[in-house]
Amino acid sequence: MDGNGWLGPEEIEKKSFSIISEELARMGVSLPKEEEAVTKRVIHTTADFEYTRTLCYSKDAVLTAKNLLLGGADIVTDTNMALAGVHKKTLGRLGGAAHCFMAEEETARLAKERGTTRAAVSMERAARLGKPAIFAIGNAPTALLRLCEMAQEGIFVPAFVIGVPVGFVNVEAAKERLMGLGVPFIANRGRKGGSNVAAAICNAILYEAAGR
To answer: Taking a C-beta distance cutoff of 8 angstroms, is the pair 133, 75 a contact?
Structure first.
């Protein structure tokens, strides 16, 4: 707290997580230990406790993602907003880098030529990174659907997918398809999600991996 009585950023975050824990206790909600840090950070980002019911995790999802990051895996996002939200300094210390191909001219050109979305093309380009990556999809269901298609066609199987696109068209179907794909995932059932949620999930796992 400074001389004017204002809390600093770290104090605000600490207080916020304390409030979240208190409210979950009052609600009688006990989160699985492995998933607790991720779910709480999503609630911290959104102020929405519904995520305690709708966030879905494949078996050992957080441990799997954490081990990927400790091994130097990259993170691929479907929006520059999510890219901006990922804590790249922590990711870099673990040997990884963050990417988003959505706004690049090559992505736009290929999407126009093929009559598809930039989101789908950006996933295809990311598949050629040549190293393991965590795909964080918070906005474009077509990105998530293209990842699923590539996996089912045997073209490319992502190491891990965070599937939390927000919206009304193809969003729920894309998430359900991901959850039946057989790859490690964290997803959110229903319409809710967003770039901020995707980044929050990435950061929660990054902080766990870095021992923060």
So the answer is: yes
Number of domains making up the chain: 1
Query: Predicted confidence band at 160 (pLDDT cuts at 50, 70, 90)?
Result: very high
Q: What is the mean pLDDT of residues 138-148?
A: 96
Domain that holds residue 139: 54-210
- To which residue do tokens 């691929």 refer? 76
Q: Annotated catalytic sites, by residue?
A: 44
Residue 68 contacts by C-beta under 8 Å, 6 or more apart in sequence? 132, 134, 159, 160
What predicted TM-score, i.e. pTM, was given to this entire model?
0.94
Cα–Cα distance measured from residue 185 to residue 163, given in angstroms and rounded to the nearest whole number: 7
Average the pLDDT over 179-190 and give the result.
Answer: 97
106 falls within a domain:
yes
Write the CATH number for 79.
3.40.50.10230
